Amino acid sequence: AGAGVDGVDAARLEQMVQTVDAGSVGARVVLVDGMVARIEGSDVAPEVNVAAWTDVDGDVQAEALQVLRSARETGLVHGDVFHKLNAAAMQDVCVVSVPAGVEIDKPIHLLSIATGIANSDATACHHPRIVVLARDNAKVAIVEQHVCLDDSTSAFVNSCTTVSPSRGATVEHALLSNLTADSYHIAGVYAAVPRDARYALCSVNTRARVSRTTAGINLYEPGADCSLYGLGLATKRATVDLHSRIIHGQKNCTSEQLQKNVAAERGHAIFRGRVIVNQGASQTDSQQLCKSLLLSSTAEVDAMPNLEIHCDDVKCTHGATVADLTEDELFYIQSRGLSEEVARFLLVNGFAEEILQKVPSSIGSDSIRSDVQDLARTMRSRPQDMATYSSV
Known about the structure:
There is one protein chain. This protein is an alpha/beta fold. The chain is built from seven helices and 20 strands. A hairpin with a 2-residue loop joins strand 1 (27-32) and strand 2.
């Protein structure tokens, strides 16, 4: 096959792009090593702007630049060194802009492909940058998917996505990280949510040697709402890490967070969730929960939910659970005539499926389901007292 983008194998690139039916997405943007390589699909309103930085309309570019420089975003980053590294090293910006009142029925697919360094054992570094703008009462679903060109690729991907909904807008955002076992993914997601707007993030992390997602959400006007759902799959010697910071800055704001982790073999799953209710943010409704399955005596789970309340008249809950599959759960399914191996498969698969169903499209989630099912199939009967080695 001939060369593709900057020497990337064109046939392999086309094969990866075509794994998703073009009819299932409103538009597709393919980023190769952090740079917009192609944009296809036109099943969106003509006034919707999906483009690389150099092709963005002047007014949209000015707004995107203001968002990138926003003091609200800076406050959410809170000294994140990887955000600064992305800002210094990024080579392009993918911009998605949805005008006021426009509702897009099909999701916009942002496929970020990382390549390695030819004939070298060195790890390639890439810094994708994405900005999503949704004006008043607009509605859009974004599926951001990070993959490697092939199984031999070793890459360090430092992605940063900034979401800026206007009043009354709704943005559903799926962040799917499915790199190779020799790769590293540091993902930053930042959103400032105004009055009556809603932002929903579903992050799923599998395969990579180290995968860390940092989510910063600022509910800075009354009536703002956000939901954070996450799934981390830590197997072999992988580390899956989620750090979140939700700020309730004004009254009558709501937030919901559910993080699920599966740790097996020598995997390490980490959750550190922080909810801050500022002074004056009365009538806040916030729920935070982390559930983890610890399927091996050599795996680790660290769960650190954190709630800071600086005012009265709020309804806030937070908590964490870490456990192996219980004898009662296994017995219930086995009593229906199924083997213990099948029972383990069903329980692990069902545990993850609750989060995967939050992805606004089947794009990318099928391969992640396959990873979960492969893990579930490898689970075999073992003494239940091994679960006493759980660490929190």
